[in-house]
Design brief:
The complex is a heterodimer of chains A (315) and B (251). Chain A has 315 residues and is an alpha+beta fold. Chain A is 47% helix and 12% strand. In chain A, strands 2-3-4-5 form a four-stranded antiparallel β-sheet. In chain A, strands 1-8 form a two-stranded antiparallel ribbon. In chain B, 30% of the residues lie in helices and 25% in strands. Chain B has a single domain (57-242), classed as Oxidoreductase, molybdopterin-binding domain (Sulfite Oxidase, Chain A, domain 2). The chains are: A alpha+beta (315), B alpha+beta (251).
């Protein structure tokens, strides 16, 4: 089964009988696949248990102190004239009513409850800080050890240097890559095996800025670690600043994952999923249409409806 | 479009709900919290390695002090013993020090002021996430331990408090000897230059520079040196520990 429809490829015409051929490539080695899925589990549970911990004091500050009235963000509750609970989200001086999701949401019994994030976003569901901390610190170790294994593996196998570190050509093609992404255009041939510049930058940022940053900001909240990390803690503004940054990076991960999932969805979800589960990824090696060899960009109709594919959802 | 959106919304909430429900079931088992709790020992050992027992908590300046030092937990113990002491402005207060010591003692605040007194401006970090900075004045716990003479069998210092968390369940805490001997571990009797206010633990509370707030027991009644805390409370070393919080509160 073809993974795609008409794709005017950029590669020069091959002087042989031109037929569409599909090549299955062993793309993601086992260790990468295992580490990827461990990371999925660890990040998910850290996010959910992190929101549980956040709910114990659902406000963020800058500096070292949590002085009342200096909240940057606060998920609050108040009662309206009729005595109903109203969820209020404060961001700086701005105020939003967020009943049902932030500040006030329904508990297990269905009644409105005062809580920062709703119970379907926290582990455990009910307010239970001690248990949230257990989940969080356990999976913090899973996340850190898995991340160290990944970086070690990526350096040793040159995956990092070869596939993730941008080349000069990558940098020169950044404008084109941005345009391609905005038009949801993805290569299907050999080119699909290579990470493009935006992918490289995204992965490097997530690993070395988000990953390293969130762990350091987590450690900056530990009073024992602060005895040796206080220069770093003060450099970011203080312990409460570290807590705020930790929270922001956590949502940075969420944004990354959403974009990542979106890209997977539009670039052949089954092929991509199979690639990360079995390792095998299919590409098209031979162009169907060789009539436009000199054209620099693939034709417009790549993602068109007239080229139904197995990989794209039908709506 | 709205149909699709509400379907997507339901799918996300549903998937998250299944995940949360699964985790809740694990949280209710005996083995789940035990396995997850393995991280505590790892945290304690690795943190001790990275931040040795001699490492010092940052000390701040007068300008950094919180205008209001937020009191948390008990803010007014209701036990008759405490009420009686408070009625007399704690003039009759004596800290009982006993257990595995050579010279058990009853120490008044004046007695404590006669030992090695330190003043420090340090940050207090609550397990809930907030922080406050205060200037604490108090007697080095180490000096009190020397005063009573610690038996070499003693491994932990227990802090028994006046405040009841539930009926007949007084607050209590414990730290190991190394933490007790740390130069920033104080029995504090003053906050920001004034006698310790009742909401903050009058007349005497524990201050530890490198652990979370729940370790820093308020309303101290008695200090006991022990070799094990298995038989005290529910055996986890403190009131909150008995509720599932970590004994090691360095993170």
């Amino acid at each position: 089964m073809s993974t795609e429809g008409l794709d005017a490829d950029v590669s020069p015409p091959i002087p042989m009988a031109v037929t569409e051929s599909r090549k299955v490539i062993y793309r993601h080695p086992l260790p990468i696949r295992i580490m990827h899925w461990i990371n999925v589990i660890a990040l998910t549970l850290m996010l959910f248990s992190g929101l549980q911990i956040f709910n114990a004091h659902p406000s963020l500050y800058w500096g070292n102190r949590s002085d009342e009235g200096t909240e940057i963000l606060a998920l609050d509750a108040r009662k309206d004239a009729a005595g109903n609970l109203v969820g209020v989200t404060h961001i700086g001086k701005h105020e939003f009513t967020t009943t049902g999701v932030l500040g006030v949401s329904s508990g297990k019994d269905g009644n409105p409850q005062v809580r920062g994030f709703p119970s379907w976003l926290t582990v455990p569901g009910p307010q239970w800080l001690a248990m949230g901390r257990r989940w969080h610190f356990f999976f913090a170790w899973v996340f850190v050890l898995n991340g160290l294994c990944y970086v070690g593996y990526a350096v040793a196998t040159r995956h990092l240097q070869r596939d993730l570190w941008p080349t000069g050509a990558d940098w020169r093609g950044i404008g084109r890559s941005i345009v391609d992404h905005l038009r949801f255009k993805h290569p299907h041939g050999e080119e699909a095996l290579r990470y493009n510049i935006l992918q490289r930058l995204a992965y490097l940022t997530v690993i070395f800025v988000f990953g390293v940053g969130i762990v350091l900001m987590g450690l900056a909240m530990s009073p024992r670690m602060d005895a040796v990390l206080s220069p770093m803690v003060e450099a970011v503004g203080g312990r409460q600043s570290a807590r705020t940054i930790h929270f922001i990076i956590a949502w940075g991960f969420v944004v990354f994952v959403l974009i990542h999932l979106f890209e997977v969805l539009i670039s052949g979800v089954f092929n991509q999923l199979r690639g990360m589960i079995t390792g095998y990824f299919a590409i098209n090696t031979t162009p169907i249409n060789t009539s436009t060899p000199s054209e620099d960009t693939p034709s417009e109709d790549v993602p068109s409806e007239s080229a139904p594919t197995e990989e794209r959802p039908h709506d | 479009m709205t149909d699709r959106r509400s379907f997507l919304h339901m799918a996300i909430v549903g998937a998250a709900g299944i995940l949360v429900a699964g985790c809740d079931r694990i949280s209710q088992t005996v083995w789940g919290p035990k396995v997850l709790g393995k991280a505590e020992g790892l945290n304690r050992r690795v943190q001790a390695l990275l931040s040795p027992s001699s490492s010092m908590a940052k000390e701040y300046t007068e300008a950094d002090i919180s205008a209001v030092f937020h009191p948390n937990g008990t803010t007014m113990p209701t036990t008759p013993a405490y009420q009686a002491l408070m009625a007399n402005h704690f003039r009759d207060y004596k800290l009982q020090v006993d257990g595995l010591v050579s010279r058990p003692a009853m120490l008044s605040i004046e007695d404590l002021k006669g030992l090695d007194v330190h003043t420090q401006i340090t940050r207090h970090d609550c397990v809930e996430g907030w922080s406050a900075i205060g200037k604490w004045q108090g007697t080095l716990l180490s000096a009190v331990l020397d005063h009573v003479g610690v038996d070499p069998r003693a491994r932990f210092v227990m802090f028994h408090c006046f405040d009841d968390m539930e009926e007949d369940t007084p607050y209590y805490e414990s730290i190991d000897i190394a933490e007790a001997r740390h130069p920033q571990t104080l029995l504090a009797f003053a906050l920001n230059g004034k006698p310790l206010p009742v909401p903050n633990g009058a007349p005497l509370r524990l201050r530890i520079g490198r652990q979370l707030g729940y370790k820093q027991a308020k309303y101290l009644a008695r200090i006991e040196l022990v070799d094990s805390f298995e038989d005290i409370g529910d055996g986890q070393g403190g009131y909150w520990e008995d509720q599932g919080y970590e004994w090691y509160a360095g993170i």
